[in-house]
Amino acid sequence: MPRLGLRSVAILYLTAILVAPLGLVFYRTFEHGFAPAWEALTTPETLHAFKLTLIITLIAVPVNTVFGVICALAIVRQRFPGKGVLNAFIDLPLALSPVVVGLALFLLYGRTGWFGGWFEQHDIQVLFALPSMILATIFVSLPFVAREVVPTLREIGDEQEQAARTLGANNWQTFWRITLPSIRWAVIYGVILTTARSLGEYGAVAVVSGRLQGQTETATLRVQERYESFDVAGAYAVSLVLALLAVGVLLAMTLVRPKEETA
Amino acid sequence: MTTFLTIVVVLPLAALFWESTKEGADGFWDAVSSPAAVAALKLTIGTSLVVSLVNAVFGTITAWVLVRDDFPGKTMMNAVIDLPFALPTIVAGLTLLALYGPRSPIGVNVAYTRTAIVLALMFVTLPFVVRTVQPVLQELDREMEEAAKSLGASELGTFVRVILPNILPGILSGVTLAFAKAVGEFGSLVIITGNLPFKTEVSSVYIFGRIESGDTAAAAAVAVVLLVLSFGLLLCIGVIRHVATRHERA
Q1: Is residue B2 part of a domain?
Q2: What is the pLDDT of residues A11-53, one digit of tens each?
Q3: Any chain A CB within 8 A of the CB of B159?
Q4: Residue B114 placed within a domain
Q5: Are A71 and A79 in contact (CB under 8 A)?
């Protein structure tokens, strides 16, 4: 009996705050048929917003993947002063408000910021342009690969790596032939999480982008712009595409996870 | 690697500290203690505490059901838990507004109230406690529970004396993560709360407002408070993990 009670509580809880609202957005998007939703999605501004989100993600994800693997290797395999500090800094983006991240970049690259003046002299637009948006996205999605790879690296130990070195492999060969194959699922899982975070970033990008329609407006910013222009249908349509991407990410996660456990 | 981390993380945060103290300690204090900033911070911490408690209870129940119960659709339920993580926060806000806003089909309209803040925060922090408690419950030795029951302990007694002490570190670190996430949340609150100063304006939204009106010094001061809070919470999680694994390391 308590089992059934708890099950109902858990299901009700998830339905009320998760499933029901999402289902409703789905319904509302197609409330007046397929055509209006399609129209809202294919305006030049919306298409540009999706393209921009895609470009940012395509740059931020590889950068964070490489950095995450290097970082994880350093944390697990090496001893150096300041390791604790490094550990704390890597986790920070998880706990920090995206608005604070945006503000920090804003201050650094703004007109009066430390770097802002130099970039302005050399006619390079960082703030209110693509570079600052990429930096913001890299910052907020920084920890995911490292956090997935660290426990796996700890678990596999370094015996095989040492054996490879004894047999004459150099660092590079050891990494490609021994280390990478054994952490690959953790890396893939981290990449999936990083992608999800990059596609959905809002707060930090909202601060540094200046939100110029058709120029620095990403898909998430587009949702808010449409909503504030009283085009709720348009906001729902863009939201739905983002939600479907999220579901895709979930599917990928479910597919990868069992493999990670058996690897 | 250090260079990368310095450029991406350390330098921007240094610039943030610099800006917040530009007008001296008095300027910093004035910005942080202005009525609107204090009201926003109180609201942020208050709602985050409420949400953390809700998470502690419902997150644990959900994790328990996922590990110990078996019913059709459980796999689906397990996958759905991560959705708030994968879903962009702005979409989360809009989604909640569809069901609990002005056009609510069930007649519940909490838009632009503090209830809406709690609801949005519940949505975005949902996975944390579930995902930290679930693996611990999975690993838990069932023999301990059976021993307790065969020695005459009640269901509740077994839970409080045997299960709870084991999963408590998991609950605590999950709750702390949820709290940290709630304190910094922005995207899901922009649409649903209406950002009314002194009523529904949380700290992150307050900072955003200050930036928009060009008052970056005040924005930076409040941002530093949030930054210190985040760092402190991360340290707490580290301590909890350290204490929880003391037997394994011994």
Answers
A1: no
A2: 888 888 888 888 888 888 888 888 888 988 999 999 999 999 9
A3: no
A4: yes
A5: no
The token pair at B58 is 């419902």
Whether B126 is in a domain gets the answer yes
* CATH code for position B146: 1.10.3720.10
Counting beta carbons within 10 angstroms of the beta carbon of residue A32, is it exposed (0 to 12), middle (13 to 18) or buried (19 or more)? exposed
Show the CA angle centred on residue A258, arms to residues A255 and A263, nearest 5°. Answer: 120
A-proximal residues of B, 24-53, CB under 8 Å: none
Number of domains in chain B: 1
Could you tell me the residue range of the domain that residue B185 belongs to?
Answer: 27-249
The size of the A-B interface in CB pairs under 8 A is 234
For B60-75, write each residue's pLDDT tens digit: 999 999 998 888 888 8
Q: Provide the 8-state DSSP code for B162.
A: I
pLDDT tens-digit profile, chain A (263 residues): 577 888 888 888 888 888 888 888 888 888 888 888 898 899 999 999 999 999 999 999 999 999 999 999 998 988 888 777 777 778 888 889 999 999 999 999 988 888 888 888 888 888 899 999 999 999 999 999 999 999 899 988 889 999 999 999 899 999 999 999 999 999 999 999 999 999 999 999 999 998 888 889 999 999 999 999 998 889 999 999 999 998 898 888 888 876 655 44
Q: Which residues of A touch B72 (CB under 8 A)?
A: none
CA distance A222 to chain B (A): 10
Q: What is the DSSP string of chain A?
A: -HHHHHHHHHHHHHIIIIIHHHHHHHHHHTTT-HHHHHHHHTSHHHHHHHHHHHHHHHHHHHHHHHHHHHHHHHHHH---TTHHHHHHHHHHHHHS-HHHHHHHHHHHHSTTSTTHHHHHHTT---TTSHHHHHHHHHHHTTHHHHHHHHHHHHHH-SHHHHHHHHTT--HHHHIIIIIHHHHHHHHHHHHHHHHHHHHH--HHHHHHHTT-TTTT--HHHHHHHHHHTT-HHHHHHHHHHHHHHHHHHHHHHHHHHHHHHH-
Buried b / exposed e over A118-135, threshold 16 CB at 10 Å, is: ebbeeeeebbbbbbbbbb
pTM summary value: 0.91
CA of A186 vs chain B CAs: smallest distance (Å): 17
